[in-house]
């Protein structure tokens, strides 16, 4: 069970779809994105996703101009699973200059230093950052207030937590429709709380219009 969460042109959170599947591979994400496209989503500037198999490729096939940013917080959490507990504090201290760097160039220098120190002990972790770096590093091109919006998937993960709270006490559902009705009620309840745009949205929007020149013209005419 996954939800698609977006920021609309007013800077407010909006759930675009709810998807039920046990297999979240490339074909599944392709069907999800095709459905969104058919229902009116014609363009996505930046898609922030976790390291889900086939998701970036599916995005590229339906929305070829979309910039796909892998969730940095998710990457950090996954990395720490493979670091021995006795090394985690020191490793995190050396990892911080990578994801909190002021620029992509500075981040890459910090990643080189991380590999020089920890590469022999944790090659799996370093290789994961290297392999995913293209999609992990997009956010460095933006100012801080835009980075905060796109470097983590915490917002949609919070929605998923609310869904789990709704379903864990209900036991079995007689059919899929009864489950969807409960989740839809949860969506409405969450949406009622999303009354304000994100912080600094006007500034974010004006800068996104420059970064993605021409793609917002039709909706920003004044």
Give the distance, in angstroms, between the N- and C-terminal Cα atoms: 40 Å
The CATH architecture assignment of the largest domain turns out to be: 2-Layer Sandwich
Output the number of helix runs: 10
- Per the CATH scheme, the topology name of the largest domain is Nucleotidyltransferase, domain 5
Strand count:
4
Binned, the helix content reads: 40-55%
Biggest beta-sheet profile: 2 strands, antiparallel
Mean pLDDT: 88
Structural class: mainly alpha
The side-by-side strand order for the widest beta sheet comes to 1-2
Q: How many domains would you count in the coordinates?
A: 2
- Indicate the radius of gyration in whole angstroms: 19 Å
Poorly predicted ranges (pLDDT <50, ≥5 residues)? none
User: Globular, elongated, flat, extended or rod-shaped: what is the shape?
Assistant: globular
Q: Which oligomeric form is depicted?
A: single chain
- Helix/strand order: EEHEHEHHHHHHHH
CATH top-level class of the largest domain = Alpha Beta
β content, as a range? 5-15%
Describe how the helices and strands are arranged.
Layout: E1 2-7, E2 13-19, H1 26-38, E3 46-49, H2 55-62, E4 67-70, H3 72-80, H4 88-99, H5 104-118, H6 123-136, H7 144-150, H8 154-168, H9 176-193, H10 201-211
Parallel strand pairs: 3-4
Antiparallel strand pairs: 1-2
Helix pairs in contact: 1-2, 3-6, 4-5, 8-9
Q: Any overview of this molecule?
A:
By secondary structure, this protein is mainly alpha-helical. It folds into two domains: 2-71 and 153-211, 2-Layer Sandwich (Nucleotidyltransferase, domain 5), CATH 3.30.420; 84-132, no CATH class. The chain contains ten helices and four strands, in the order E-E-H-E-H-E-H-H-H-H-H-H-H-H. The radius of gyration is 19 Å and the shape is globular.
